[in-house]
Amino acid sequence: MTAATPLGPTWYEATAPAAAPRPALKGEVNADVCVVGGGYAGLSAALHLAKAGLKTVLLEAKSIGGGASGRNGGQIHSGQRKDQEDLERELGDTHARELWTLAQDAKALVRSLISEHDIDCDLKNGILHAAWKHADAEPLRRYVDHMAARYGYAQSYIEAKDVPAYVATSRYHGATNDPGGGQLHPLKFARGLARAAEAAGAIIHEGSIVTALANSKAVTTGGHVAADHFVLACDTWLGELDRSAGRTAIAINSFIAVTAPLGARAAQLIPSDLPVADTKFVVDYYRLTPDGRLLFGGGENYTPRYPRDLKAFVAKPVHRVFPQLRDVTFDYAWGGPVGVTLSRLPHFGHAGARTVFAHGFSGQGVALATLAGQLMAEATMGTATRFDVFAKLKHRPLPGGRLLRTPIMALGMAWYALKDRL
Ligand SMILES: Cc1cc2nc3c(=O)[nH]c(=O)nc-3n(C[C@H](O)[C@H](O)[C@H](O)COP(=O)(O)OP(=O)(O)OC[C@H]3O[C@@H](n4cnc5c(N)ncnc54)[C@H](O)[C@@H]3O)c2cc1C
Q1: Which of 72, 198, 341, 422 has the most neighbouring CB atoms within 10 Å?
Q2: Nearest CA owner, ligand 1 atom 16
Q3: Residue 406: what are its φ and ψ, rounded to 5°?
Q4: Who's near 314: CB < 8 A, 6+ residues apart?
Q5: What is the pTM of this model?
Q6: φ, ψ (nearest 5 deg) of residue 97
Q7: Environment class of residue 370 by beta-carbon count within 10 Å: exposed (0-12), middle (13-18) or buried (19+)?
Q8: Strand, helix or coil at 292?
Q9: Element (H, E) at 105
Q10: Is any atom of ligand 1 closer than 6 Å to the C-beta of 74?
């Protein structure tokens, strides 16, 4: 795996109950389905396949949630990464509506899995979407009206003067309050899905990197799984197993820092206790933790290397939003790879007759990758109706080929990041 190895420890690792390591794959194993990847997509696929009675083996290179699923912002977003208005224009009404319905299914699936399997992961409802620029405010207000009129989806618009009652900053020019969004503890959710999959009969091996898929076998250094079907849920590492499928997404490193406990200041900082994501291209996303810290995602880079001082790196966007926190120290900082496609829509597809994949959730994977697992399981079992809503989306390979893709994308991303500051 060549993408940047994330740094630890994370606040999530520090606050999730310890998980006993699972043994690596040894020897030859037969299965109906072999799932590669132990993030939300792979775990949800394994859970749904095992529940349906299929012998399912999941191979994870590191540990459960060791990719993006155990280290993300924990925000549950509505819809796709692209607004419904854009989707209607680009894809037509019917397809846009199908994508909205599936995004609604995705949030409902997360909530139902948590409740059905009793996953204790600090789930709360609601999310704010804040206008960073004056020019972003009116489109946000119009979008609230559009979603109510066209989809019957209720959100409220918050005027700029009222925003500080929700979040104590003067930076925003307005916001929306989306009660259908939410927040959770990502690693607890991933580990809970793993336990649920095992309870349903799936077998999980950690420390088992798949180095090749050939002749109906997933090969690791310790053995192989011979299976009738394969589910590739490797997100930013997909290209290492299937170069062609992997060409449609790039790994962007996103960084998170967590302050020392804020005590009584926490409730003053975010009186609504809602998570917040803003409208910038390089999004600031943040929320309070149950132990009264600010968990803030801000800043990204596009190379295999992380900034040397991650706490100082994330402190910059924190202080732009909350200058009152300049005296506060950071206890944790880490990064992780976000798989992003050019269209900002996930890429689902088939790699041969008996292999499905889904990746590139573009910052919306808490809900969408969990759904992707269910849809890949359905497609594997012969019902691809919902899978095909995503699979029929057209994806362009990112420009530049293997060697130049990252530097070319870095240039493009830097341009858009610059526009945030104009
Ligand atoms: C810092 C950060 C913040 C984010 N914030 C949010 C947020 O607030 N809300 C949101 O919705 N989304 C967010 N995301 C995105 C979200 O986390 C991802 O879209 C989602 O977790 C992807 O799930 P996945 O299962 O597809 O991939 P991953 O969780 O990355 O899992 C893929 C797994 O496959 C394993 N793997 C890869 N190759 C192999 C191989 N060859 N053999 C065996 N195993 C392999 C990896 O080790 C990894 O564990 C964020 C991402 C990051 C990094």
Answers
A1: 72
A2: 365
A3: -65, -50
A4: 255, 256, 257, 296, 297, 298, 299, 330, 333
A5: 0.96
A6: -70, -40
A7: buried
A8: coil
A9: helix 93-116
A10: yes
Among candidate residues 351, 352, 371, 369, the one with its CA nearest the CA of residue 361: 369
Distance of CA 104 to the CA centre of its chain: 16
**Under 8 Å between Cβ of 66 and 60:** yes
DSSP for 314-368, please give it: HHHHHHHH-GGGTT--EEEEEEEEEEEETTSS-EEEESSTTEEEEE--TT-HHHH
Could you read off the pLDDT of 18-48 as tens digits, one per residue?
A: 999 999 999 999 999 999 999 999 999 999 9
Does the beta carbon of 207 lie inside 6 Å of ligand 1?
no
SS3 128: strand
Cβ-contact 283, 276 below 8 angstroms: no
- Radius of gyration over alpha carbons of the chain, in Å? 21
Tokens of 107: 């949030």
Our answer on whether the CB atom of 96 is closer than 6 Å to any ligand 1 atom is no
Q: How far apart are CA 193 and CA 187, in angstroms?
A: 10
Contact 170, 201 (CB under 8 A): no
| Segments of the chain scoring below 70 in pLDDT | 1-8, 400-422
pLDDT value of residue 281? 86
State the Cα–Cα distance between residues 225 and 242, nearest whole angstrom. Answer: 17
What are the structure tokens assigned to 288, written together?
């309070």
Instruction: Note the pLDDT of residue 128.
Output: 98
Residue among 376, 377, 36 nearest 205 (CA):
36
Residue 296 Cβ inside 6 Å of ligand 1? The answer reads no
Q: How far is CA 48 from CA 51, 94, 383, in A?
A: 5, 28, 13
Query: What is the CA(419)–ligand 1 centre distance, in A?
Result: 27
Task: Confirm or reject: Cβ of 71 under 6 Å from ligand 1.
Answer: yes
CA of 336 to the centre of ligand 1 (A): 8
* 292 vs 266: CA distance, rounded Å: 6
